[in-house]
Amino acid sequence: MLNKITVVGAGNVGATAAQRLAEKDLARSVVMVDVVEGVPQGKALDQWQSGPIEGYDTRVYGTNDYELAAGSEVFVVTAGIARKPGMSRDDLVKTNAGIVQTVAKEIARVAPQSIIIVVSNPLDVMCTVALKASGFPRERVIGMAGVLDTARYRMFLADAMEVSVEDIQAMVLGGHGDTMVPLVSYTTVSGIPVAQILAADTLAAIVERTRNGGAEIVTHLKTGSAYYAPSAAAVQMVESIALDKKRILPCSAWLQGEYGLRDVFCGVPCKLGRQGLERILEVTLTAQERKDLHASAEAVRGVQASLGL
Predict the structure, then answer these.
(1) Average pLDDT over residues 223-242
(2) pTM above the 0.90 mark?
(3) Which among 43, 89, 176, 211 is annotated as catalytic?
(4) Mapped to the 3 state alphabet, what secondary structure does the chain carry?
(5) How many CA atoms lie within 13 A of 90 on its CB side?
(6) Any long-range contacts for 276-281 (C-beta under 8 Å, 24+ apart)?
(7) Edge-to-edge order in the sheet of strand 59-63
(8) Which of 20, 37, 117, 300 could covalently link to 235 via disulfide, CB atoms 3.0 to 4.6 Å apart?
(9) pLDDT higher than threshold 70 for residue 88
(10) Residue 220 annotated as catalytic
(11) pLDDT for 186-218, tens place per residue?
(12) Predicted confidence band at 309 (pLDDT cuts at 50, 70, 90)?
């Protein structure tokens, strides 16, 4: 158990993440920071009062500044505007870059030894902003993307095969967007290659739906974006760090030569433990998967360049 975890942003993703963190008893206290006066305070009080019912002792606090977050071991950054119908993740880049830059500087000020998990979109580029603004090493700035994308991929596969999602092993790499790379070659059902169970056209349709998973939800909601699954994904990462579980999860990491890529955040298999990003695992990809991964990284690099990063 950690002493303190802070969630920046008390909107749908942030508030749901804070609730999940409290319910899992991963820290003695969870702090929600938001610029809107009264919102983090009210939501935190409501969540804290559900403790006797759900059976957790974690104290949840809400605040409009970062002083209460001082000394937090982990920060989950969800701050930023959400996508609207017809808006790509990249449309958010300039507005959210300014927000994330301010947040990262504040985190570095009040908790210079902390680990940052970025959820704000466009995810991979916001990780770059947080890395540079905080001055933290790459081991302590990690993006939540692959866990969410992989969850969507696994659920679509489970539905198509009418099997338990627990029996599906899969991983989605690349940038968090339309160029993400579900690794079909590594996808199995209780060890059985998925290509032996599903037809190629069915698999291709599932891959495409996974790439558009966020946009599909935005289309339904019309005035917001996904938050239940994104918050669950972020909390799974926090749990691996807080409990030093050493889980291998697909996360956005600052690559320095891995997979032939450098100076770009991109989703790859990561070992997460108490020190944050403890190892990047390089797996053998098919020629097409490697080509797609590099194309995805270049798409991220293009958005980075638009910000002068």
Answers:
(1) 96
(2) yes
(3) 176
(4) CEEEEEEECCCHHHHHHHHHHHHCCCEEEEEEECCCCCHHHHHHHHHHCCHHHHCCCCEEEEECCCHHHCCCCEEEECCCCCCCCCCCHHHHHHHHHHHHHHHHHHHHHHCCCCEEEECCCCHHHHHHHHHHHHCCCHHHEEECCHHHHHHHHHHHHHHHHCCCHHHEECCEEECCCCCCEECHHHCEECCEEHHHCCCHHHHHHHHHHHHCHHHHHHHHHCCCCCCHHHHHHHHHHHHHHHCCCCEEEEEEEEEECHHHCEEEEEEEEEEEECCEEEEECCCCCCHHHHHHHHHHHHHHHHHHHHCCC
(5) 13
(6) 276/115, 276/139, 276/140, 276/142, 276/241, 277/138, 277/139, 277/140, 277/142, 277/251, 277/253, 278/139, 278/246, 280/253, 280/255, 281/248
(7) 59-63, 27-33, 2-8, 74-77, 115-118, 141-143, 247-256, 262-273, 276-280
(8) 20
(9) no
(10) no
(11) 999 999 999 999 999 999 999 999 999 999 999
(12) confident
Average pLDDT over residues 110-139: 97
pLDDT in tens, 45-78: 999 999 999 999 999 999 999 999 999 999 999 9
Rounded CA gap, 136 and 115, in Å? 9
Mind listing the pLDDT tens digit for each residue in 161-187?
Answer: 999 999 999 999 999 989 999 999 999
Tokens of 165: 């999602």
Q: Cβ(39)–Cβ(64) under 8 Å?
A: no
Distance between CA atoms of residues 299 and 15, nearest Å:
31
* Cβ neighbours of 191 (radius 10 Å): 7
Contact between 242 and 234 under an 8 Å Cβ cutoff? The reply is no
Residue 135 has φ and ψ, to the nearest 5°, of 75, 10
Please report the domains of the chain, with CATH numbers, ordered by start residue: 2-143 (3.40.50.720), 146-306 (3.90.110.10)
